[in-house]
Design brief:
Blueprint: H1 3-19, E1 22-23, E2 28-29, H2 34-39, H3 52-81
Antiparallel strand pairs: 1-2
């Protein structure tokens, strides 16, 4: 596995996580959006004040990039350790 695959695995896992917590018709969170906000800390502070649809869109974009970055960092750390 290389660094690109690690990044895209993180993005994919975040998208799956997000789609399990979103209702598409109407476009809103199932229950509350708290789990999405907690999963995207620290950048979720940016979209805390948004309505549900904007929060979901921002989480899809910025949260996916963040999770991809996290998985990329984990890959680098494990590659150095082992």
């Amino acid at each position: 596995m290389d660094e690109k695959k690690a990044f895209f695995i993180g993005v994919g896992i975040h998208i799956i996580f997000l789609f399990t917590r979103v209702q598409f018709f109407p476009f809103r969170c199932i229950g509350e959006c708290t789990s999405i906000i907690v999963a995207d800390i620290p950048i979720s502070i940016i979209y805390l004040a948004f309505s549900d649809p904007l929060l979901i869109i921002f989480s899809l974009i910025f949260g996916s990039i963040l999770w991809g970055f996290y998985f990329w960092l984990l890959y680098i750390v494990f590659q150095k350790l082992f």
